[in-house]
Every structure is written in C-alpha cells, then in structure tokens.
Please model this.
Amino acid sequence: MSKSRMSQQALAAALTTALLAFAAPSMAFAQDEGGSDRSERSSRSARSADRSERRSSRQAPQKAEALYPNSSRQEPGVSASQRLVKQLNTLSEANNASDAAKGLPVADEIIANGSANTYDKSMAALLAGQLLLNEDNDRAIAYLNQAIETGGLDNNNHFQAMLIVAQLQAQDDKYAEALATLDRYITESGSTDPKDQALKGNLLYRLERYPEAIATLKPLVDAGGEVDPQWQQILMASYAESGNSAEATRLAEQVAQATPGDKRSQVNLAVSYLQTDQNDKAIEVFERLRAAGQLTEESEYRNLYALYLNSENKEREAIAVINEGLQKNILKEDYRTMAALGQANYFSDQIEPAIAAWRKAAPLAENGDTYLNLARVLHQEGRADEAKEAARQAIAKGLKSNTDAERIISGR
Model:
C-alpha cells in the first residue's frame, strides 16, 4: 500500500471533525454598576417599599430614584391598604429572611383577600416570586407575572419584575419566551441600558437569529469605552455562524490583542483563523497557549495535532503534541488519538512506533480498516505471521472488501 493511499484513510480518521466555532457564550444577565444582578436590585426596591409602610404616618417616605424616566406608563399611585399593612410587613420580614415556608402562605392570603387593593396583591405576588427565585422558577415566574398584570406596583418594581421574568426564562433555556418578555420590557419601560440590549442580542444568538443579533450587539461593541468581553464574544459567534468569518476574525484579533492573558479570547482567535484557512496563524496561537501551560482541554490538544497533521511535513510536531497530551492525561489512548499517532509516526518514517500505536487503535475502531492498515505495514516490513493475524482480525471486525486482507493471508 502506498503512503498516499494510507494518508487519505488515516487522515480522515485522525483529524478533529468539528473544530468548534466559538464556545457558546454563557447567558449574561444585566447587572448594575455595583455588580449585583438587577433581580436583587428589584428585591431591594421591593423591600424598601415595604419598609416604608412601617414608618409613622407623620414621617414622609423618601421617594426612590426613578429607574425608568422614559416610560410612558403612569404610576398607579396606590399604596398599601391600612388593614393589610400587618400582613405585608410579615411577608416582607419573611422575604428578608428568605423564609418561603412562612412567606408564601401569607402572600396567597393577601392575593385572595377580597379587600386587598391592586398594590397589596401586586406586592404580595412580587415578594412571593422573589422567595422562589432559583428554587422553583416556574412558580416564581407565575407570581411575578401576576404582580405585573395586576398593575399595582410603582414603575421601578413593575419593570424590574418584568426583567426578572425574562432572565428566569433565559436561565431555563426558554429563549423565545424570554425574548418576548424582554421586548415588552424594553418597549414599555423605555430602557436605554446597554445591558438590556446585550441580553437581547444574546437571546437572538441563542435563537439562531444571527443577523438580528449582530444588528443589536454591533452598536454596543462599536460605542467605544469599556466593553463587556461577553458582548464581543457573542458578536463574534454571531458573525461566525452567519458565515462572515472575516469579520469574526477581525473582531477576534481586536479582543485577543486587548486581553492577551485571557485564554478564551486566544482560543476564539485560533478558531477564527481556522475558519478562514489561516492554519499557520492558528498553530501560532495554540503554541503560545501550550508554551504557557494553558492547553488544558482535550479538544485543544486534538485541534492542535490535527492542524499539524493537515500541514506539510509537520508529523513530528503532531507526535510531540499527542505524546504531551497523553503524558498529562489530557488525551486518552482512544481510537482517534492512537490512530493519529500511528499516522504521524508512519509518515515520519518511524515504523515501529506507528505499528505500536495502530495495535492500540485497531481493537477500538468501529470496523476492520485500522487492522488492515496494520496488516499492510507488517506485510511491507516482512513480518508475515503478524501481518496475517492482523488481516484475520480485519476481516473479523468487518471490511467493505476482504480482497487485500485475503491476499495478505494467502502470502501473496
């Protein structure tokens, strides 16, 4: 068997078949400048509103800062019913203590009370929803939607509840529902917060609506100043998925240059080079990470050795990468790795190591092709008995054609 023929078969088996475009970005929920997410800010706002009910009637409550000055929604101007202040206070205390067992029955009583006004019911539903956050998100969403639709909350709490619902839906992978809720929130609140637009771009990306994701995220990234790397990563992924690899690469280079110590940015850059057939540049990036001890994932080692195997006369480099990955227990002695190691050794004229690697790969293969390759090499090396045994194993494991294996067994 010629080396060129073996190259076509072994390379197809060895190369990483799916070099990931960009790691799927994690959901980035909007946060305030202090770093806490805005569901917590809503919780603080709600608790503040309830504490105001406990103040003396002679003490004028301090008006909270309007978070949504552009909203066309009229503040309902409704306050707690005097007869339900005690229950609301009990519910607020349970909320502050994160005591759902105590708070939820009180919330349900207020909501069911025929004497309760829209504020009482909305605030009870809001606090009940907060008690269930990340414990039972479906019930939390139901309570929060009830708070919104009842319509008794001030604008701050009303729209913060809506934003929390969108975030919870996104967290539970209900991206279409989350986008609908978020669009309503942005429209009705008049929000101009870039974080809200970033969340929308993320949701559009998740829904594979890449042109819309790009149109939403690009102005945020191009605005200048300090930009959240997450926004850039989602924009890069959107470009890549929409087929605009050149723009994805341009942005990847920009991000990688700005964050040289960030591994994810460097890997994204390497993958963007792969997508634009700039394999030499991809190798350079992976090798910098390798030299820094930052190649820690199996896929990273596979991608690097696959790049070397797909390059001219780079088999020895591939061998070094595979052996290092095996020594670090990052690569496993599975079929793909050992078949690649056998190929790299064979084409660098290291026949014995190639045979050793293929002996490990062949039993793990889905069919008898690797056993047949092993039989051919052993036959070429004049090791007839070993070649015949490998050929028999190839037939037993299954071949499209037994002709070559039978020829080796017959000694021809």
